[in-house]
């Protein structure tokens, strides 16, 4: 939230009258800061103060929605320059560019390929989010054919691109119910565009050759009641894009400068001829704040790294990443292979499974869901106790995977050994190393069937 | 007229020199965030090191092997090809043969290999052990002695073995990679311990790398925060240049083994991401990943 | 500040052994050691207690009450064990703890009402640990509402803002201090408490006490009411009792960033000043913070 609870408190009557439903004005201020109550709930606020607070409380970077329903791309409302300061909130939309100059079969094929660019990773779906439809031909009819096809055969949200304002809004009208982003809105066409933007209720893709130009356009849009814009600062290459997006975000977050308080978009598809370079630029621009990136690539080998990259950078550093609960087979284990057990905290999983691979000794790695917390904390809260693990072994029929009855547990969990010995009397419980990096040594020296 | 919100910082990241003579390379020295040419001074482009092994690679996909297929049994040949054909300006010789769980080659023998490479090519050289504390201590000490005066960058120096390695580096005129595991506080602690007797301008910090899809964001954020502590908070124990050893991490992923394009991009994306975070020196395996990154960051 | 002694803890081998064997002697030593130094409450930490939850805690409570009249703080995540212990407490007990997670509010809070005990209420909720002061405030307001509706008054609630180890997340310490100062306005009548030793969890063993003691002084100044501490840290207890006013004053001056020539101070004083600077976020924490 833009304004902290304590700052809101300064503007409140401080009478603790309780008429808003909260016990104190301070409580009301806190709830307001985190969105639990509305400003209007306080009957004693001076209208000027109310307006001031409303303005100040608005998030510094506008939330913009492109598309509708479950496929909607929601960007903006970012709060930090560096993800470790809190987190990045709304992952950028990746758009694939389709030109109306392409042949129908080429367009069909591209659309089919884009639909297939869906992957699953640690329980999440990674995919392309938008189609950027471009009126390169300059021909209104051709553009409408493209938009119509995309509209009828896919459920992607769109970015509509045309230098001709009439063609642009005509196409937008065709698919207005899917809230397309219309681009470019410039200082030349902004006056003519405003009534149409308002009528259709769609967000504006603002383009300027300088930030001054962008500011002029966004200001005119805002004044006219067009609230949602995405800014293209016209960056020519990756380095410029990094500069432009950094300065825009800084202006919004650190200076509270509203005319630049919008998410940004970048066109790496126009920056580089070489495919590898386009991929690298796309990933860099996503790392450095882009709300939308437009790519021309549709091959899995180029798109998949981008999807995983976006997934990584936009993961919340405050929440531990987790992996799926199951019995992982590392390096093709057999009935004589060792069994190790640990929690589903992703980083631990990668380190432990990596260490086992390095040891070159095939093994079963049992990963128990502990909500992503590590061994000791999980044991204390009852998620990684003897009882819980015994249940796990039963659930995944671990007994029948091996001939032996030995279980290697993380070395830090000494108390767990006693519990497990009680729960699993027919098993030998081996205390493994405390450090994952000692797993290779442990397995090669201590493991014997 | 919009005033761009530029930021200026009063301190510099330290400059570390790798190698000797006219081919020596400097890294670090910047007084602003990575690639922020528009608001600060970055005297040295990030160093891009090409990896060379001191033994035949195992389990590499063919496309990772292809560029060096004809030379992988000879570290000197491999190093030469990296420089002459692929334009590497920094090399990283990884002494995998010394792995106590593997070939367990003796320190003296490993040091001789390093010496051969050093003698055949006058180019900045990073020399890395395997991370096995005790063995690395012996190996790197021997390498330091054998290549005395050559200003190599030796690592990793860890909490458990930095004293021996730094002592040898000090005595024989080398720089070191100080490695702490994904934690800014531990990085600082190791630097404090080192700087009691070792010059800070010969330290490069390694927060431990990870590949795209396998923890990359942890490394990314640690590198970003180390850079901030140094530049913005002016913590002089966090002003060393930052090192990212990523080739080995990326090419062990199953994704890199699916196709050449995906493999090269897996590595290049990881490398670029760490450069954007603030890495001043990155070690890559595939020459195409190196060339790609180099082209994209040149100003 | 009210001090709750934490040393009767199953993480200690001696204690867990004694509990297992039903051996009262080590328990007695632990109780008398802490009460001798002068704590106000005793925390009994019996862990998750999956097996035989009731008999263990019953034995422990009865045994401890045989050696002291101090009120008890019962520390377990097992609700059955908690209730069994509460039944036997002679003095008004303190439940350690409930959180804002739905399950905890529904199963633990009613016990506080039923047995008229105090309730340690942490800011953790179903989303996890709040990341800053405002988020902590939002979380605690919700749990307080739930508690008040059950008939538990603020006066019986001890709010735990959850202290993170300085080596794990130094910024959280600043959020913590900011939040403590909000509590009187946020929850009039409620007390604040924390597990002080968490602060120094990852620090070198010999330096943990220094971190804990310095922080105790800092948060006392910010108005914290209680802390769960080591009952064997004599210096901490003396500090808390006002027997070391010069150190307290020094810490306050370091908090206020007063100009001082640190080289004129004794080693011990220098250590307190450096520690204060780290805890106030002036320098990045490292395990060698005293050596810089």
Topology:
The complex is a heterotrimer of chains A (449), B (299) and C (292).
Chain A: H1 5-11, H2 25-33, H3 47-57, E1 64-66, E2 73-75, E3 93-99, H4 104-116, E4 118-121, E5 124-127, E6 130-134, H5 140-153, E7 158-161, H6 165-174, E8 181-185, H7 190-200, E9 204-207, H8 211-223, E10 229-232, H9 238-255, E11 264-266, H10 275-287, E12 290-295, H11 300-313, E13 326-330, E14 339-343, H12 346-359, E15 363-368, H13 375-380, H14 386-395, E16 406-409, H15 414-423, E17 428-431, H16 439-446
Parallel strand pairs in A: 3-6, 3-12, 6-7, 7-8, 8-9, 9-10, 11-12, 14-15, 16-17
Antiparallel strand pairs in A: 1-2, 4-5, 13-15
Chain B: E1 15-18, E2 25-28, E3 47-53, H1 62-65, H2 75-84, E4 90-94, H3 107-120, E5 125-128, H4 133-146, E6 153-157, H5 162-172, E7 175-179, H6 184-195, E8 203-206, H7 216-231, E9 243-245, H8 247-250, H9 260-277, E10 281-284, H10 287-297
Parallel strand pairs in B: 3-4, 3-10, 4-5, 5-6, 6-7, 7-8, 9-10
Antiparallel strand pairs in B: 1-2
Helix pairs in contact in B: 2-3, 3-4, 4-5, 7-9, 9-10
Chain C: E1 2-9, H1 13-21, H2 24-37, E2 41-45, H3 53-67, E3 72-75, H4 79-88, E4 94-98, H5 102-107, H6 109-115, E5 118-122, H7 133-150, E6 157-160, H8 170-186, E7 191-192, H9 208-221, E8 226-229, H10 234-240, H11 245-255, H12 267-279
Parallel strand pairs in C: 1-2, 1-8, 2-3, 3-4, 4-5, 5-6, 6-7
Helix pairs in contact in C: 1-2, 2-3, 3-4, 7-8, 9-10, 9-11, 9-12, 11-12
Tally of alpha and pi helices of chain B: 10
Q: Whole-number average pLDDT of chain B?
A: 96
Biggest chain pair contact, residues each? A-B, 51 and 46 residues
Which secondary-structure class do the elements of chain C indicate? Answer: alpha/beta
Principal-axis shape of chain B equals globular
CATH superfamily of chain B: Dihydropteroate synthase-like
Q: What's the CATH H-level homologous superfamily of chain C?
A: Dihydropteroate synthase-like
CATH 2nd-level architecture of chain B: Alpha-Beta Barrel
Number of beta-strand segments of chain B: 10
CATH 2nd-level architecture of chain C? Alpha-Beta Barrel
């Amino acid at each position: 939230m833009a304004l902290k609870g304590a700052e809101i408190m300064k503007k409140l009557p401080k009478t603790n009258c309780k008429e808003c439903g909260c016990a104190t004005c301070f409580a009301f201020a806190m709830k307001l800061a985190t969105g639990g109550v509305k400003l209007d709930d306080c009957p004693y606020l001076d209208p000027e103060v109310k307006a001031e607070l409303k303005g100040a409380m608005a998030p510094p970077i506008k939330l913009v929605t492109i598309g509708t329903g479950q496929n909607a791309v929601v960007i903006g409302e970012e709060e930090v320059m560096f993800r470790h300061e809190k987190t990045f909130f709304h992952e950028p939309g990746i758009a694939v560019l389709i030109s109306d100059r392409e042949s129908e079969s080429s367009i069909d094929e591209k659309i089919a390929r884009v639909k297939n660019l869906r992957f699953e990773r640690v329980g999440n779906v990674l995919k392309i989010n938008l189609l950027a439809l471009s009126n390169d031909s300059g021909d209104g009819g051709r553009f409408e054919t493209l938009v119509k096809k995309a509209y009828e055969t896919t459920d992607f949200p769109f970015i509509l691109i045309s230098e001709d304002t009439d063609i642009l809004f005509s196409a937008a009208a065709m698919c207005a119910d899917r809230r397309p982003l219309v681009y470019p809105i410039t200082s030349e066409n902004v006056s003519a565009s405003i009534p149409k933007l308002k009528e259709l209720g769609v967000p504006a893709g603002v383009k300027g050759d300088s930030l001054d130009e962008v500011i002029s356009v966004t200001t005119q849009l805002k004044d006219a009641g067009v609230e949602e814009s995405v800014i293209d600062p016209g960056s020519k290459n990756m380095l410029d894009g990094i500069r432009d997006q950094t300065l825009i975000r800084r202006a919004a977050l650190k200076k509270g400068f509203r005319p630049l308080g919008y998410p940004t978009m970048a066109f790496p598809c126009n920056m580089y001829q070489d495919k590898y370079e386009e991929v690298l630029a796309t990933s860099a621009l996503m790392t450095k704040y882009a709300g939308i990136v437009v790519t021309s690539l549709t091959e899995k080998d180029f798109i998949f790294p981008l999807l995983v990259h976006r997934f990584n950078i936009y993961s919340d550093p405050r929440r531990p990443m987790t992996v799926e609960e199951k019995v992982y087979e590392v390096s093709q284990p057999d009935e004589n292979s060792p069994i190790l057990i640990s929690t589903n905290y992703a980083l631990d999983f990668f380190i432990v499974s990596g260490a086992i691979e390095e040891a070159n000794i095939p093994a079963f790695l049992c990963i128990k869901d502990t909500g992503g917390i590590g061994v000791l904390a999980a044991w204390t809260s009852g998620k990684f106790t003897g009882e819980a693990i015994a249940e796990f072994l039963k659930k995944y029929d671990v007994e029948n995977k091996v001939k032996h009855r030995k279980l290697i547990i993380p070395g830090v969990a000494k108390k767990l050994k006693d519990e497990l010995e009680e729960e699993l009397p027919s098993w030998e419980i081996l205390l493994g190393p405390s450090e994952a990096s000692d797993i290779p040594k442990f397995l090669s020296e201590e493991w014997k069937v | 007229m919009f005033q761009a919100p530029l930021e200026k910082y009063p301190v510099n990241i330290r400059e570390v020199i790798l190698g000797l003579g006219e081919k020596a390379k400097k890294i670090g020295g910047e007084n602003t965030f990575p690639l922020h040419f528009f608001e600060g001074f970055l005297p040295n482009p990030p160093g891009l090191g090409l990896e060379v092994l001191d033994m035949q690679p195992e389990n590499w996909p063919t496309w990772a092997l292809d560029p060096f297929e004809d030379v992988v049994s000879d570290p000197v040949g491999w190093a030469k090809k990296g420089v002459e054909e692929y334009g590497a300006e920094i090399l990283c010789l990884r002494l995998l043969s010394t792995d106590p769980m593997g070939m367990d080659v003796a320190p003296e023998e490993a040091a001789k290999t390093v010496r051969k490479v050093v003698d055949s090519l006058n180019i900045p050289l990073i020399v890395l052990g395997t991370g096995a504390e005790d063995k690395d201590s012996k190996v790197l000490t021997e390498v330091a002695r054998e290549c005395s005066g050559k200003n190599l960058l030796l690592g990793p120096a860890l909490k458990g073995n930095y004293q021996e390695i730094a002592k040898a580096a000090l005595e024989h005129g080398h720089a070191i990679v100080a490695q702490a595991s994904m934690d800014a506080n531990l990085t600082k602690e190791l630097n404090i311990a080192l700087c009691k007797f070792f010059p800070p301008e010969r330290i490069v910090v390694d927060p431990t790398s990870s590949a795209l899809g396998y923890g990359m964001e942890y490394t990314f954020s640690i590198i970003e925060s180390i850079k901030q502590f140094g530049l913005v908070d002016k913590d002089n124990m966090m002003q060393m240049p930052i090192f990212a050893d990523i080739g080995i991490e990326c090419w062990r992923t199953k994704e890199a083994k699916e196709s050449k394009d995906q493999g090269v991009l897996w590595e290049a994306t990881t490398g670029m991401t760490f450069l954007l975070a603030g890495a001043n020196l990155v070690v890559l395996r595939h020459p195409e990943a190196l060339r790609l990154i180099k082209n994209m960051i040149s100003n | 500040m009210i001090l709750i002694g934490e040393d009767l803890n199953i993480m200690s081998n001696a204690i867990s052994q004694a509990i297992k064997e039903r051996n009262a002697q080590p328990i007695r030593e632990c109780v008398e050691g802490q009460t001798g130094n002068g704590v106000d409450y005793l925390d009994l930490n019996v862990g998750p207690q999956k097996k035989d939850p009731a008999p263990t805690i019953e034995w422990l409570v009865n045994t401890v009450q045989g050696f002291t009249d101090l009120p008890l703080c019962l520390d377990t995540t097992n609700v059955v064990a908690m209730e069994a212990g509460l039944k036997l407490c002679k003095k008004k007990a303190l439940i350690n703890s409930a959180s804002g997670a739905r399950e905890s509010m529904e199963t633990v809070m009613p016990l506080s009402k039923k047995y008229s005990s105090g309730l340690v209420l942490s800011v953790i909720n179903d989303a996890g640990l709040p990341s800053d002061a405002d988020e902590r405030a939002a979380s605690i307001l919700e749990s307080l509402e739930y508690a008040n509706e059950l008939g538990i008054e603020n006066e019986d609630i001890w709010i735990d803002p959850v202290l993170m180890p300085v080596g794990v997340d130094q910024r959280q310490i600043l959020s913590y201090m900011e939040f403590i100062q909000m509590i009187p306005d946020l929850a009039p009548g409620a007390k604040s408490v924390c597990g002080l030793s968490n602060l120094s969890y990852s620090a070198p063993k010999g330096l943990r006490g220094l971190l804990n003691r310095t922080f105790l002084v800092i948060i006392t100044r910010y108005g914290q009411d209680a802390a769960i501490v080591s009952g064997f840290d004599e210096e901490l207890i003396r500090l808390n009792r006002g027997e070391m006013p010069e150190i307290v004053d020094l810490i306050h001056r370091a908090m206020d960033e007063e100009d001082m020539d640190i080289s004129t101070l004794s080693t011990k004083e220098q250590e307190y000043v450096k520690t204060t600077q780290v805890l106030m976020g002036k320098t990045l924490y490292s395990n060698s913070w005293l050596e810089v």
